[in-house]
Design goal:
- The protein has four helices and eleven strands.
- By secondary structure, it is of the alpha+beta class.
- The protein folds into two domains: 178 residues, Alpha-Beta Plaits (2-Layer Sandwich), CATH 3.30.70; 32 residues, no CATH class.
- The longest helix has 14 residues.
- The relative contact order is 0.26.
- This is pre-crRNA processing endonuclease.
């Protein structure tokens, strides 16, 4: 693919939360395509393009750790936001000191992934070379719009543009196949924020991600 990119990301901790876990956070075994897309968008995002994740390389062994995290007990209500928009003076605020809750989380420890992706032009000028160059320049310099993270904002992601092939050896290189179960692919923003899933299978440390519209991606 002429306009594909490769990026290595790594970090001390990661948590790619399973949506079926309503209270305590439990991470998937590896980074999800939606989380990988979030990393790329943190580095380079334009309304004219849409990132598509093609392949995920898993370099390090899958290790879990149990921690306790401070979280907000509730969200800012939409009613308060609407009220503030209407009168222009009502406070739009929520304080962690008043709503702190401590919850257990099962997170990943010491992770490193290789992301292969390309983008599709959504609208405007079809100048793929310009977008590739802008992404590559930003990634090469370590620039980003906001700091990329590994599932949760308190788990920052380090990243490095890979301009040839990945040189890291996968811990699963000699493992023919491992079924990781159903995994969140991404959110269908055009269909009432519907979550869509695919069967993630890792072969020799690599997960091939089907296109979002493929038959094997289901709601």
């Amino acid at each position: 693919m002429a306009y594909g990119i490769k990026l290595k990301v790594w970090g001390e901790y990661a948590c790619f939360t399973r949506p079926e876990m309503k209270v305590e956070r439990v991470s998937y075994d590896v980074i999800t395509p939606s989380a990988a897309r979030g990393v790329l968008e943190a580095i380079y995002w334009k309304p004219e393009i849409r990132w598509v994740i093609d392949r995920i390389h898993v370099f390090k062994p899958i290790r879990f750790d149990n921690i306790r995290r401070n979280e907000l007990g509730n969200k800012l209500s939409s009613a308060n936001v609407k009220k503030a928009m209407k009168d222009g003076k009502s406070p739009v605020e929520i304080f962690i000191e008043d709503n702190r809750q401590q919850r257990a989380a099962t997170v990943l420890r010491a992770v490193a992934y290789g992301i292969e992706a390309h983008f599709e032009i959504r609208k405007g000028e079809n100048n793929t070379a310009k977008h590739v160059e802008m992404f590559s320049r930003r990634a090469r310099r370590g620039q980003y719009f906001h700091h990329p993270y590994l599932g949760c904002r308190e788990f920052p992601a380090h990243f490095e543009l890979v301009e040839e092939d990945f040189t890291d050896k996968s811990a699963f290189e000699d493992e023919d196949e491992r079924d990781l179960g159903w995994m969140l692919h991404d959110i269908d923003f055009n269909n009432n924020m519907e979550a869509r899933f695919f069967r993630a299978v890792m072969r020799n440390g690599v997960i091939d991600v089907p296109p979002f519209g493929a038959e094997e991606v289901v709601a």
